Amino acid sequence: MERPLLVYTTFPNSDAALSVGEDLVRRKLIACLNVLPGMASVYMWKGHVERSQEVVAILKTVKTRQEEVYAALKAQHPYETPVILFIEPAGADSGTLAWLTASTLAPEATVG
Questions:
Q1: Residue 44: inside a domain, yes or no?
Q2: What is the rounded distance in angstroms from the CA atom of residue 49 to the CA atom of residue 53?
Q3: What pTM was estimated for this model as a whole?
Q4: Could you tell me the strand order of the sheet in which 4-11 lies?
Q5: pLDDT digit string (tens) for 9-47?
Q6: Based on the structure, what is the number of domains in the chain?
Q7: Rounded CA gap, 35 and 21, in Å?
Q8: How confident is the model at residue 92 (pLDDT cuts 50, 70, 90)?
Q9: CATH at 63
Q10: Measured on CA atoms in the order 25, 76, 74, 57, is the torsion positive or negative?
């Protein structure tokens, strides 16, 4: 049985997040992307304290797609060192888990 997986990352703007998210949905790596705009960030980068406006992106997928999601995010992300955190929920509603699983079936798994 598949296990749910959430992926937390940030982007410089909604357009970048939505573009990457749409590609990952089309490739069935994730079932959904939520973009939360208007986040102010303070962080250490290359020895300096930085401030910037960002958006939070939460990706919904299944554990078996983790490595593929990671590779796709690293390849497409506009940041030199993006924050990519994998969060494994303790469980999920059965309908939600069925939707996640159906939405992220590997293309070869759907061939008869």
A1: yes
A2: 14
A3: 0.91
A4: 32-45, 48-62, 4-11, 84-87
A5: 999 999 999 999 999 999 999 999 999 999 999 999 999
A6: 1
A7: 9
A8: very high
A9: 3.30.70.120
A10: negative
Summarize pLDDT for 51-91 with one digit per residue, the tens. Answer: 999 999 999 999 999 999 999 999 999 999 999 999 999 98
In a domain, residue 112? The reply is: no
pLDDT band at 112 (very low <50, low <70, confident <90, very high): very low
Question: How many C-beta neighbours within 10 Å does residue 12 have?
Answer: 14
- The domain of 37 spans 4-107
Tokens 């159906």 belong to 102
Secondary element (H or E) of residue 66: helix 66-76
d(CA 36, CA 14): 8
| CB environment 50-61: b (16+ within 10 A), e (fewer) | eeeebbbbbbbb
Here the tokens at position 96 are 């939600």
Residue 14: strand, helix, or coil: helix
The amino acid that residue 108 corresponds to is E
